[in-house]
Write a structure and sequence with these properties.
Elements (H helix, E strand, L loop, with lengths): L1 H36 L6 H22 L8 H5 L2 H33 L12 H26 L21
Helix pairs in contact: 1-2, 2-5, 4-5
Subunit structure: The complex comprises the extracytoplasmic solute receptor protein and the two transmembrane proteins.
Organism: Vogesella indigofera
Family: Belongs to the TRAP transporter small permease family.
C-alpha cells in the first residue's frame, strides 16, 4: 500500500509540474505576443486559470499527505499525551466535517458546471469544480486514515505537538 501511495504522490507532483509549465508557457507566450506582435492567444487566460486551480488543489492534497499544512502546535506541545490525542481527535473530526461541507459544495458546483461552458474554448466549467471535488475526497480519505491511526494508537499516527511528529508524509 505504501508503495502505491508513493507512486500516486509522484504522479500528483508530475501533474503539478506539468500544470505549472503550461501556465508559464501560456502566460509568457501571451505577453510576448502582445508586446511584440500586438496579438495574443485568446484561450491562454482560460487554460492558465484552469491549470492554476488544479495546481492549488493538487498542492493542498500533497500538503495533507506530507503533513505540511500550517499549524500552531505550541499549545498541543504543552499538553499531556492523552490531552494531545484528544485534541487531535477533535481537530480531525472538525476537519472531516469541513471537508464534508466542501465535498457537498464541490459536487453541487460540478453538477452546475456540467451545463455551463467557458467563454473561449467552450469546455465545461465542471473542470474547475472537479478539482475541488477530487481535493475534498482525497483529503477526507487521508484525514480519516490518520484519525483511525490516532484512535487505534498506531505508532505512525500524526498527532500535532508530539515530539515524535515529523512531516515526512511517509506514513499517511
Amino acid at each position: 500500500m505504501h508503495n502505491y501511495l508513493s507512486r500516486l504522490e509522484r504522479l500528483v507532483e508530475w501533474l503539478m509540474a506539468l500544470a505549472l509549465v503550461v501556465m508559464v508557457a501560456l502566460v509568457f507566450g501571451n505577453v510576448v505576443l502582445r508586446y511584440v506582435f500586438d496579438s495574443g492567444i485568446a484561450a491562454a487566460e482560460e487554460v492558465s486559470r484552469l491549470m492554476f486551480v488544479w495546481l492549488v488543489f493538487l498542492g493542498a492534497i500533497l500538503a495533507v499527505r506530507q503533513n505540511s499544512h500550517l499549524g500552531v502546535e505550541m499549545v498541543q506541545a504543552r499538553l499531556s499525551p492523552a490531552w494531545r490525542r484528544g485534541c487531535a481527535v477533535l481537530s480531525h473530526l472538525l476537519m472531516l466535517y469541513a471537508l464534508w461541507l466542501f465535498l457537498q459544495g464541490s459536487w453541487s458546483q460540478t453538477l452546475i458546471g456540467l451545463e455551463t461552458y467557458s467563454t473561449v474554448l467552450g469546455f465545461p466549467m465542471a473542470l474547475f469544480a472537479g478539482a475541488g471535488l477530487l481535493c475534498a475526497v482525497a483529503m477526507l480519505l487521508l484525514i480519516a486514515a490518520n484519525l483511525y491511526r490516532i484512535v487505534r494508537r498506531h505508532p505512525h499516527a500524526q498527532i500535532p505537538g508530539s515530539p515524535d511528529t515529523h512531516s515526512t508524509g511517509q506514513d499517511l
